[in-house]
Specification:
Number of helices: 3
Distance between the termini: 46 Å
Bound molecules: flavin-adenine dinucleotide
Largest sheet: 2 strands, antiparallel
Radius of gyration: 19 Å
Length: 96
């Protein structure tokens, strides 16, 4: 935003990679999200990108995952969070 206003900007980063908490740890062909997994509040990204005359889809492609998320309770119980809201209502009702 400051660069857009004409200021000369230097970005300093202590890690050897950009992205901060939105990083990935990879080992033996497996990738682990080290921070955010959910694409929350898309309008925030849209508004920010619009400040620079861009849309999110100009820079990255979103793919809906199903299941969106898998939760492990100990060694045996696994619960999948679906991408379909109605399915999740049913799932949460089962827990209640
Ligand atoms: C486990 C986990 C799960 C999360 N899940 C979600 C999610 O599902 N959805 C979601 O929207 N959000 C999620 N979040 C929150 C999200 O990750 C953060 O809100 C977001 O990454 C913050 O971005 P940021 O650029 O403000 O800060 P950061 O990503 O923390 O970036 C700060 C940067 O500054 C650098 N830095 C720090 N100190 C210095 C220094 N002295 N000199 C130079 N560089 C420095 C750091 O190395 C880092 O690159 C999650 C966070 C965690 C930890």
């Amino acid at each position: 935003m400051l660069a857009k206003e004409g200021h000369n900007i230097t970005v300093l980063e202590k890690n050897e990679f950009a992205g901060g908490r939105a990083s990935v740890y990879s080992e033996e062909g497996f990738n682990f999200d080290m921070g955010p997994s959910w694409y929350l509040m898309p309008d925030v990204y849209e508004n920010f990108f619009a400040e620079f005359g861009k849309k999110p889809e100009d820079l990255f492609e979103l793919k809906r995952l199903d299941p969106s998320y898998r939760i492990f309770f100990g060694d045996t119980k696994v619960v999948d969070i679906a991408s379909d809201l109605e399915e999740n209502y049913k799932l949460f009702d089962e827990f209640e």
